[in-house]
Amino acid sequence: MSVFACAFLVLALIMLGMGIPFAFLAASLAFALTTGLSTGNWGSTAWYSLESFSLLAVPLFMFAGTLMERTGIARALMELAEKITGKGKKGGGLCNVIPVFSALFGALCGSGLATASTVSSMIGPTLEKKGYKKSLIYSLAAASCPLGYMIPPNMNAVIYAKVANASVADLFIATMPTAIVWLAAYLVINHFLVPKYYDPALDSGEDGEEAMTAMQKRAANLALIKSLIPALLMPVIILGGIYGGIFTATEAGAVGCLYGIIVGLLVFRSLKLRDVFDIASKTAISLGTMMITFPFTMIFTRIMVTNGVPQMITNFITGVVPNKYIIILMITVVLFIAGFFLDGNIILLVITPLLLPTAQSLNMSTIQYGVLVFVALGVAGITPPMAVPLFTCARIGGTTVEEMMKPLLAYLIIVCVPILLLVAYVPVVSDFLPALLR
Q1: Are 73 and 269 in contact (CB under 8 A)?
Q2: 384/377 Cα distance (integer angstroms)
């Protein structure tokens, strides 16, 4: 069996319904049996794939993010987003709250799917009452979910850093310019797109704030500020600590957990001690399903690397297509299409070691390639057929993916694809801040 037949076997087993970790293990065993490859080092490969200090950041940030999601901070962030974007119903109007909130909430939870589901459940019903159509609301919620992890902390960055031997801190800061451009592009397109999906006949006319007296508004604003201070302090503490040299990214995850517990139990008092244990239990379950993938995929990746597959890919692509810009486009398309069908962790763990040497041969830095992978995962994650955030938003909003496709296509074609190409072809977008902070 050749290494390429081994790779096709993995895809075939996954399509037949076998669990992803076991598909990689089965293909690796088939390769070993047919080629006489020794499996003596598989145990150490599996062990060292998990024995990593930086990888500890994954459960810590997952736990901290869930804590912040459950504390009630999301409500304060939504009110802040409304203050930032204004309440006008024309132009981008209230719908601008969705991408702004996604960026703010992403700085706390670091999860695109959690951001999409929170936006849909908290903001969606309010916007429906204001006269906006469901197809726009929930397609925008899905389209904004990549902002949830482009704003650090980014779990994908921790995993990528382990595989590519990159700096987690550099990856965290490298995604910020892309996230800001992405957010600004959504606000611009909303100015032209949203009015087409606003129906005054559906507006309930409810606006509690306009009925408030000046004194009540001042009191409400003061209460908002008080609730926002602990919310906005978390990213300041985490990122300030990392880039100030006070602690590492992994230690920052631990600080985030401690801060989330203190805020939830003592400041907002929305958490009880049993809730903390419940969150820890759910985090452990989510982590278990992720971590079982690491050893088996790393065994498979080792087979690919030791058999020279990355170099074969580099030689083949550069030999067939000598133009640098076409090769970059090919890499981008491969990552984008792979995101349709494969879990993001599989792309980070398997495809990264295979394509990174080709990217580096084109003078693409490890950081730029990492940001390209993150953006490709984000765009592919909201593009059918396997768009989990899209289906999640449709289910929460009580609408269908078919109804959401028209506005979603506008966001994909006008914003997401250009952002993907920007990251691929303009290195300074990804490399500027990490170089500045070194």
Answers
A1: no
A2: 13
